[in-house]
Amino acid sequence: MSKSRALSSDQPDSAEAIAARPVAADIKSSINLRIDANTRQLIDEAAAILGKTRTEFMIESARRHAIDVILDQRLFVLDPEYHDAFMQALDNPPAPGSKLRSLLRRVPSWQE
């Protein structure tokens, strides 16, 4: 195995897997945004540098950021020694303490 290991809640998600997820419908729709002139100019300049339209630039940028946000919630990488310690902690949780037992005995406020 490589020097780092990836862990996630269910199954490992790569950026490619997230980006390729099917949507409910492949129908294109629009998003309307209101932005100040300076921001629009900045976006236009960056898009021009890359040879892209404003729309292409904004979609690519937003999509990349969305993937990063999702991966930040699902994926983290650990060095082998930290991975082993993490797995050991998951496999052998500490016994519940008095504060946890007390908390679990309380009736939740939404049920009162």
Automatic annotation (TrEMBL):
GO terms, molecular function: DNA binding
Domain of life from the UniProt record: Bacteria
Entry annotated with the keyword Isomerase: no
One Pfam family here: TacA1
Classification via InterPro entries: Ribbon_hlx_hlx, TacA_1-like
Gene3D superfamilies noted in UniProt: Single helix bin (1.20.5.780)
Keyword Transit peptide: no
A biological process term (GO) from this entry: regulation of DNA-templated transcription
Keywords for this protein: DNA-binding, Repressor, Toxin-antitoxin system, Transcription, Transcription regulation
PANTHER family reported for this sequence: COPG FAMILY HELIX-TURN-HELIX PROTEIN-RELATED-RELATED, CYTOPLASMIC PROTEIN
Entry's family note: Belongs to the TacA antitoxin family.
Name under which the protein is recorded: DUF1778 domain-containing protein
